[in-house]
Amino acid sequence: MTVNMGMIDRLLRAIVGAGLIYWALTNADAWWAWIGVVPLLTAAVGFCPAYTLFGIRTCPAKQS
Question: Which residue windows are transmembrane per the record (predicted)?
């Protein structure tokens, strides 16, 4: 599994993911906000399966 996300993309995903999880923890009606786990995990790993499907790559490193 190669990294296909750049640092800015990873940072934004981590912020959004953490914000959604915080919202889920503080608001019982926002159970759907647990979806924030997905962007948080993809930010931690640096790989997005959807990017592979659509041929998107935000990582500046060259593919070999």
Answer: 7-25, 31-54
